[in-house]
Write a structure and sequence with these properties.
Elements (H helix, E strand, L loop, with lengths): L1 E5 L4 H12 L6 E5 L8 E4 L2 E4 L3 H6 L4 E4 L3 H13 L3 E4 L11 E2 L2 H4 L9 E3 L3 H17 L1 E9 L7 H12 L29 H14 L5 E5 L9 E9 L5 H9 L4 E3 L11 H4 L5 E8 L6 E8 L3 H17 L12
Parallel strand pairs: 1-2, 1-5, 5-6, 6-8, 7-8, 9-10, 12-13
Antiparallel strand pairs: 3-4, 9-11, 11-14, 13-14
Helix pairs in contact: 1-10, 5-7, 5-10
Bound molecules: NADP nicotinamide-adenine-dinucleotide phosphate.
Length: 337
């Protein structure tokens, strides 16, 4: 398959190339794309060098699939041009996620909504992806009424410049800032801009995207999203109220047997998920499972995943694998979900 990676020089794009190679996605021709400043730059894929091309040149090459990680405005402008040329776009930005004509997909949850007519497919927000992977089997069994989530998000979620800010601050270098405050040795309770209701856009993404992916508007969600100075992945404290009561050992077993989830929950031996352990892994790690003793039918848990992998690159490649396996693009490959 001819595969374009738009944003190939960025944090997510670089991870995308790594994941495509690792999972042996059947790439017959790789087309790396980035902004004007990177055209001609060489990137390595499976030991071979490829030159970065412009968006215009990439469209002319008519790729089967284009995986976008180049920001919302690039997606809004360029994804329809690829789609018009017959390319299926899988987009990592927030540009198309809440468009009612576009599918928002986490393969473990709702891959079955995809058809050959979907030419622009949205990859959800990283914090939402890891949460819904864990929510889905629980919702199917106990029916979720309400979710209260607080996040502890890695600087890698903001891209290359944020990682530079953290390391510059750590070395005492006065460099450019992408956050409004120092991030090193700090916690910033703001991700993305504020909206009129006092929530940030990131919080509203978690609220709205969860309902859309789960296909159930009755699920109430409230979120507080927070940036912390870590690198390995995002962590979430999640409180889930169910309609029906649950058995804690059954919850543990249900999660452990669900695709994409690893349960790490052994308090006696100090075992619980942490971003350092999740780093560069594709799974969603769930632990600290316990009853909320202040309310009936309510569970507390802790969910950690590498935001650049399952939160972005891995999820996008899994969508491409699903499309290929179902003959919705290119030639069939075996889907892993
Ligand atoms: N980081 C995460 O955890 C995460 C998770 C999910 C989704 N996302 C989304 O993925 C996207 C990229 O995030 P990132 O963290 O990888 O950012 P990043 O490290 O800043 O990389 C941005 C990439 O986009 C390219 N780009 C910028 N403007 C372009 C244009 N006009 N045409 C073509 N390419 C252009 C850049 O190319 P140059 O190098 O030439 O500037 C670079 O390759 C964003 O939309 C972000 O919201 C990120």
């Amino acid at each position: 398959m001819k595969v374009a990676v738009v944003g190939a020089t960025g944090l997510v794009g670089t991870k995308m190339l790594q994941v495509l190679a690792e999972r042996n996605f059947p790439v017959t021709e790789l087309i790396p794309v980035a902004s004007e400043k990177s055209i001609g730059k060489e990137i390595t894929f499976k030991g071979k060098q490829f030159k970065v091309v412009s968006v215009e040149d990439a469209i002319k090459m008519k790729p089967d699939v284009a995986i976008f990680s180049a920001g919302g405005s690039t997606s809004l402008e360029q994804a329809p041009l690829f789609a018009a040329a017959g390319t299926t776009v899988i987009d990592n930005s927030s540009a198309w996620r809440m468009d009612p004509t576009k599918k928002l997909v986490v393969p473990e949850v709702n891959a079955d909504v995809l058809t050959a007519d979907d030419k622009i497919i949205a990859n959800p927000n990283c914090s939402t992806i890891q949460m819904v992977v864990a929510l889905k089997p629980l919702h199917d069994k106990y029916k979720i009424k309400r979710v209260v989530v607080s996040t502890y998000q890695s600087v890698t979620g903001t891209g290359v410049k944020a990682v530079d800010q953290l390391f510059n601050e750590r070395k005492g270098i006065d460099g450019p800032k992408v956050y409004p405050y120092t991030i090193d040795l700090n916690v910033i309770p703001q991700i993305d801009v504020f909206t009129d209701n006092g929530y940030t856009k990131e919080e509203m993404k978690m609220i709205l995207e969860t309902k859309k992916i789960m296909g159930d508007d009755s699920i109430k969600v409230t979120a507080t999203t927070v940036r912390i100075p870590v690198m390995g992945g995002h962590s979430e404290s999640v409180n889930i109220e169910f309609l029906h009561d649950f058995d804690l050992s059954e919850v543990r077993e249900l999660l452990a047997n669900s695709p994409g989830i690893v349960v790490v929950d052994d308090p006696a031996n100090l075992k619980y998920p942490m971003p350092l352990d999740a780093h560069d892994k594709d799974d969603v790690f769930v632990g600290r499972l316990r009853r909320d003793e202040s309310q009936d039918n309510t569970l507390n848990c802790w969910i950690v995943s590498d935001n650049l992998r399952k939160g972005a690159a891995t999820n996008a490649v899994q969508i491409a694998e699903y499309l290929a396996a179902k003959h919705l693009i290119g030639q069939p490959v075996e889907a892993t979900v």
